[in-house]
Amino acid sequence: MTFPQGFLWGTASASYQIEGAWNEDGKGESIWDRFSHTPGKIKGGESGDVACDFYHRHRQDIAIQSELGLSAARMSLSWPRIIPGGHGAVNSKGLDFYDRVVDELLAHHIQPWVTLYHWDLPQTLEDKGGWPNRDLAEYFRDYASVVVDHLGDRVKHWMIFNEPWVFTILGYLAGIHAPGRREPGEAIRATHTVNLAQGLAARALRESRGKPAMVGTAFSMAAVHAASDSEEDRGAAERWHRFSNLWFLETVMQGRYPEAYLHGTMADRVEIGPNDLETIKAPLDFIGINLYSRAVVAHDPANHHLAAKQIRGGSEEVTDFGWEVVPEALSQMVLRVAADYPTVPIYITENGCSFGDGPGPDGTVDDQRRISFMRRYLAELNRAIRRGADVRGYFTWTLTDNFEWTEGLHGQRFGIVWCDFKTQNRIIKESGRWYAKVARSNALDFDPVQSHAR
Ligand code: IFM
Fold this sequence. Notes:
The chain has helices spanning 15-18, 31-36, 54-67, 79-82, 92-107, 123-127, 135-151, 164-172, 184-206, 231-246, 249-254, 276-280, 328-340, 368-386, 430-441, 448-452; strands spanning 8-12, 72-76, 111-117, 157-162, 214-226, 287-299, 308-311, 346-350, 391-397, 417-419, 426-428. By secondary structure, the protein is of the alpha/beta class. Strand 10 and strand 11 form a beta hairpin. The longest helix is centred in the middle third of the chain and has 23 residues, at 184-206. Bound molecules: 5-hydroxymethyl-3,4-dihydroxypiperidine. 5-hydroxymethyl-3,4-dihydroxypiperidine is lined by residues 14, 17, 163, 290, 350, 397, 404, 414. Residues 14, 17, 163, 290, 350, 397, 404, 414 line the site of 5-hydroxymethyl-3,4-dihydroxypiperidine.
């Protein structure tokens, strides 16, 4: 199975999950610093204070990416490292760090794909109300301008947000991610501010003094499967799809909220200003899809908004996180997005799995389950491409095992490179070596029988 010429192969990462150096060189506190320093929030009381120490070890990690023959690296910037107070004064040492990382990637012929925001909001802005506060949209636009003015001469591919649905809903509704609030009304308001911020930042990135930028966002997506064939369950699945997959995509592409509610609209729930939808609409140059699994959804009259609930899928094969392994979810999702936006290129900005396999007696990490997972998901991606989807690259989550949010450092290992968090020693896993072969040959050796052997 070959991939289109020029197809990009990379890994994805996020500032808080790998950088460490949480209070070095003038960096401000982020909501994830505050959250992980609050007892009881993170498994084992761990934090990203040091994480993979990428702040000091980025040269080594970029050398590994180069050794693997990868052509692109997705990374995110820490807003409080660059603007410690969220808006206003810029910390030049923060920008210097990202200069070093971008220059090192380019020196290894690896394209930097930069995400502006992967969840580490400056705590000062949370103190002003966080994402439910509309003012944040403009602060975010200003941050985007600072960043693109500085890096835009070298960075050509930008993602505005990583998984806007996840950080608004888990952060402000479910309360299991920073800032840990459980306020349903505020959560929906947060989604509106983030949509405004997305539109404003897209313009800021395009107005940069540098060369033209390609602008997208990395959306969390899961193919939604109805719990049964009943009309009610199918309706619920469609509403779930619109809310969880399209809430930030249809807005930016078309300037309207998807019709996800059983009764009423977004405008009945949040005040939408007269020009808001115009501001929000800023069609993206590419669509980033982060996909790990599927969602199985049933009708639920107790949910007054979506009248839907996610239920257990029941697949036997799951990752250590308990996420169902459903490779066809990737082709289904890609083909659906491609059908909705046939002229917009798609990139898989995240896909991967958590399996805890560690070093064996010979020192190697033989993570065959990860290889099996990746091979089957990539085969499905290849199938979607053959059916006409314009997919131009794949970023596996992630390079090194890292800080997996509430699961801490040791809870879930997603890396193709083992990280010993005590010694900071790295070992390229067998999956990393396998992925390197795929990237180098731009092709997948797919044997359906072997690929199911676990
Ligand atoms: O680690 C996360 C990442 O930050 C966002 N997408 C999902 C990954 C695995 O949970």
